[in-house]
């Protein structure tokens, strides 16, 4: 049975994508009428998917209510699959006649998707490097313990040297504590450095990534104090900040903002709102060059 569940889970992951464990639940008042049973189309979708993926009765598959979309003849529904402790939820679309089902993303060509993304990014109280009028802004959601984030740090260092005042970098905390035990301690250190001296943040940022391999859960606190001192910060003030709840609240706010933007792995970067996951320096530079080459008339409409 364990082998079956493992294979089935992989199928679900490939079909449904990232886990949405934090789905928002809407409470049903006790006096509310019992919900109607599934429609024929919902039943048919469930039968189809069970047959396609060989989901037996031990797999809980729920086809949510069918909802209207802006496209005539097309309905949307949330389909949830639960195998053991693994639960995945994804949005699917089904034709009103129940003949066609697909998973994808509807794009309204009358809207600028990058503008909508940029509007969701909260930059208040975030560390910023570069001029406010830079034509390209890179927002990075990173984890100080993440090896790929260190690769991104190295790539950004070179890109900043190359493009200078043409780019601005904004750092957003996204520590993944489940797999990185000292990431939050480092994030707290970054917040405390920023609070004492916003520009000193970038010195601590460099120190952490440059020495990532020698930091551990056991020595992280001492290392952070050491890096604060090397960055010219008042260590006593820094230590008091590290022990206070304020930096933790700022980190939680950054995490919430990332979740709103569907950030589910680190690093995730937004180049003028264009999403990029990972540390592909070539692709980041491609995005930068594209933005720099855009006509000013187009940029004025952003």
Account of the protein in words:
The chain is built from eleven helices and ten strands. Strand 2 and strand 3 form a beta hairpin. With 302 residues, it is an alpha+beta fold.
SSE map:
Blueprint (H helix, E strand, L loop, with lengths): L1 H15 L23 H14 L6 E4 L3 E2 L5 E10 L2 E10 L5 E3 L9 H8 L6 E3 L6 E7 L4 H17 L3 E7 L9 H14 L3 H11 L9 H11 L4 H8 L3 H15 L7 E4 L2 E4 L3 H13 L2 H4 L3
Parallel strand pairs: 7-8
Antiparallel strand pairs: 1-3, 2-3, 3-4, 4-5, 6-8, 7-9, 9-10
Helix pairs in contact: 5-6, 5-7, 5-8, 5-9, 6-7
The major pleated sheet works out as: 5 strands, antiparallel
Shape: globular
Number of helices: 11
Mean pLDDT: 88
The radius of gyration is 23 Å
Please trace the helix and strand order, writing H or E for each element.
HHEEEEEHEEHEHHHHHEEHH
CATH class category label of the largest domain: Alpha Beta
Q: Got a strand count? A: 10
Taking the alpha carbons of the first and last residues, their distance comes to 54 Å
CATH architecture of the largest domain: 3-Layer(aba) Sandwich
- State the domain count: 2
Query: Helical content, roughly?
Result: 40-55%
The CATH homologous superfamily of the largest domain is named Glutaredoxin
Give the amount of beta strand, in percent: 15-25%
Structural category: alpha+beta
Poorly predicted runs are 1-11, 18-33
What is the CATH third-level topology name of the largest domain?
A: Glutaredoxin
Features:
about 300 residues, globular, Glutaredoxin, 2 domains, alpha+beta, 10 strands
